[in-house]
Amino acid sequence: MHPSSPDPQSAFATRVVLELRQAGADAYWAGGCVRDLLRKLRPQDYDVATSATPGAVRKLFGARRTLAVGESFGVIIVLPPEGLEPVEVATFRTEGPYKDGRRPDSVVYATAEEDALRRDFTINGMFYDPVEHRVLDFVGGQADLKAGIVRAIGDAHARMQEDKLRLLRAVRFTAVLDFQLDPGTAEAVKAMSSQLSVVSVERIAQELRKMLLHRNRRRAIELCLETGLMDVVLPGWTETEPAPEGALQALERLETPSFGLALAVLMRSLPNPEPNRRKAPVPTGTVRGHCHRLKLSTADSDSCLWLHAHQHDLDRISQFSDADLKRLLAHPLSGELLKWFSVQAAVDADKSRSLAFLTARSSTWTAADLAPPPLITGQDILALGLKPGPRLKELLEAIRTAQLNGEVATVEEAQSMLRALIGGSC
């Protein structure tokens, strides 16, 4: 097997292997890049496995071209030419106990076969020789890849016990590859699902992001439900019985959503924490709490919360003034909100009519119509003798609203309105 069309990234990864070989070491591409190549996909990044020790790798490529990000575990990063991604070089190894369920307590350098046997899934446990163009498969990965099966290497319970994140990765690989989860592996995931809680929330959130950004996001969440992982990923979501079909359908219908949008759709089906309002919309505070628990970035949290806050706007869009609608459409996340509106409209006739109304009403508006330069600034108001404070903001908002509604169109008209408002408030 040859890469379909060599590119600069694969050429760099091949060069890393060649330099290790010329220094007397065994070296191969390893893991996900091999899986992708066998599926005739271009890998996003390349990992190299080698018999060379970390010290030998650093000596060969030089301190300036390497980063010792995981030297104690046998991992060195080889820095690339400008414009390319680095290549991770790991020494063949076996691993000691994972007492914390996340990382090994020790590593012992080993052979390529021993290294393959300590990896997570058969489809990720293969090596590829980019020089002689051959696959090294000690774990049956090629057969499982051809059959479309995600299977743990060796004892599934032992593999999951070593690194609890593998519980979630098993589900993600099954969904995004559109494969089947091996029954023995599925049984291990179900039996150990609660132990996902020992994994850092940042790593869980990272896996959730990858699942929700993939077109098979619905299946990923269904697998999380079937295996019990959802109780850890998003506690409370499974309290809605039966599983929220509306949320699953919406996830499936979303067209290339952002993480914030997909997450907002998912969280829409969280139960209301108030006992007598279980079927009422989930409060913003609950959504904010989950964003905080997952330690999301401010951008992701703000995106999820804004979309959550405006998800029902389509129900009352006919009541919006021009100013209300222009403010909504001028927001940076309006495109994501319109995706959600489209999903809602696809299954509800009233919402479909509301979306058609919104589209027709805004069809002639340009970007300049949605967010024109303000006619009055805070300095203009201060120049008239008004002191800083809440009233200043109220006046700015009132004039801006009038501008967006088409009630004032020039600076002179805005100044006249301002004087009337100030005079009326004195």
TrEMBL record:
<dbReference type="InterPro" id="IPR043519">
    <property type="entry name" value="NT_sf"/>
</dbReference>
<dbReference type="InterPro" id="IPR002646">
    <property type="entry name" value="PolA_pol_head_dom"/>
</dbReference>
<keyword id="KW-0808">Transferase</keyword>
<keyword id="KW-0479">Metal-binding</keyword>
<keyword id="KW-0460">Magnesium</keyword>
<feature type="domain" description="Poly A polymerase head">
    <location>
        <begin position="27"/>
        <end position="151"/>
    </location>
</feature>
<comment type="similarity">
    <text>Belongs to the tRNA nucleotidyltransferase/poly(A) polymerase family.</text>
</comment>
<dbReference type="GO" id="GO:0046872">
    <property type="term" value="F:metal ion binding"/>
</dbReference>
<keyword id="KW-0547">Nucleotide-binding</keyword>
<dbReference type="Pfam" id="PF01743">
    <property type="entry name" value="PolyA_pol"/>
</dbReference>
<keyword id="KW-0819">tRNA processing</keyword>
<dbReference type="Pfam" id="PF12627">
    <property type="entry name" value="PolyA_pol_RNAbd"/>
</dbReference>
<dbReference type="GO" id="GO:0000049">
    <property type="term" value="F:tRNA binding"/>
</dbReference>
<dbReference type="InterPro" id="IPR032828">
    <property type="entry name" value="PolyA_RNA-bd"/>
</dbReference>
<dbReference type="GO" id="GO:0008033">
    <property type="term" value="P:tRNA processing"/>
</dbReference>
<dbReference type="GO" id="GO:0000166">
    <property type="term" value="F:nucleotide binding"/>
</dbReference>
<feature type="domain" description="tRNA nucleotidyltransferase/poly(A) polymerase RNA and SrmB- binding">
    <location>
        <begin position="178"/>
        <end position="237"/>
    </location>
</feature>
<dbReference type="GO" id="GO:1990817">
    <property type="term" value="F:poly(A) RNA polymerase activity"/>
</dbReference>
<dbReference type="InterPro" id="IPR050264">
    <property type="entry name" value="Bact_CCA-adding_enz_type3_sf"/>
</dbReference>
<keyword id="KW-0548">Nucleotidyltransferase</keyword>
<protein>
    <submittedName>
        <fullName>tRNA nucleotidyltransferase/poly(A) polymerase</fullName>
        <ecNumber>2.7.7.19</ecNumber>
    </submittedName>
</protein>
<keyword id="KW-0694">RNA-binding</keyword>
